[in-house]
Amino acid sequence: MPGEGGSRVRRLPLPLPLPLLLLLHLPFWPGVQAQEPERTPSILPSPPLPVAVTGVVTDRRLGVPVASAAILVVWMDGDDAADGPPLQVLSGSSGRFAFPSLVPGRYLLAVSALGYSSVEEEIEVTGVSLLEIALVPEAVELEPVVVVTRRSRYLENVGFFQRREAGRARSTFTRDEVLAVSGNLLSDVLRTVPGVTLRRTRTETSAVLFRGGCQPDLVLDGVNLGRGAFIDDLIRPRDVEGLEVHRGGTMFLPFSNSACGALVVWTADPSARTGGDPWSWRRMIAAGWIVLGVLVLTR
Questions:
Q1: Where do you find CATH 2.60.40.10 in the chain?
Q2: Cα 269 from Cα 248, distance rounded (Å)
Q3: How far, in whole angstroms, is CA 77 from its chain's centroid?
Q4: CATH class given for the domain over 153-297
Q5: Domain 51-135 has CATH 2.60.40.10
Q6: In Å, what is the CA distance from 116 to each residue of 58, 70, 74, 147, 163?
Q7: Which residue, of 52, 75, 191, 200, has the fewest CB within 10 Å?
Q8: C-alpha span between 271 and 266 (Å, rounded)
Q9: Rg (CA), the chain
Q10: pTM of the entire structure?
């Protein structure tokens, strides 16, 4: 309506349509409840089951199995890079090997064996697999082996090595060689010398005989004990520093002129090893008693 000071228009809010009001108030009507949409449960894919991978390693040229070959597999990720701990097994005597539980996927396979070229390639494991690996033989250059021998100073002083290198003795044995051959008796070493035989005596001792049945002299540390002494009764193998076997025709010894020959034994003396005098009083007295006993028995 127009007024005295001008006309003004007052706008009233329009009522909402009836259907819209019914929709807004519908959830609150008694006996009516809103229903939520149904949710479909999500199903996650199960991880792949492990599978067994077996194989055999052979020689490509000969076709024979390769034993003790190292077979290594490493899981490969999507970037074609090794990812994961490596697994390694060795082939058996038949060349066979097995990985009992590998997850299907891509792996880096590496195979190596002594005397063969190494193999490295990618494999796809999709199920139970059998691998056949043929290795190519390859020459292996080994480091040179340096053998260092220890010469006894005592044997050097008594001329043992000079006679050995000059071939003046039928056979010679150092301490290490005696221990490598003999058991409990020094006569075991003499069994390996051609032309030497052993004869058992009544006292269960072996008498040493050379070819023709002659009995050689026994020389202990340069003292000639004659032909009646038995080597096993006087010295044990671990007490020997050197042993020489001389035949009569090739013998050049100042302490024996026997036509049959001589057995020369050098005993291991601590004082001699340190450069002392090999002729200790203990040896001289022992040798004197032995010689005296032999002389009494041979009268």
A1: 51-135
A2: 28
A3: 36
A4: mainly beta
A5: yes
A6: 10, 11, 21, 28, 47
A7: 200
A8: 13
A9: 49
A10: 0.44
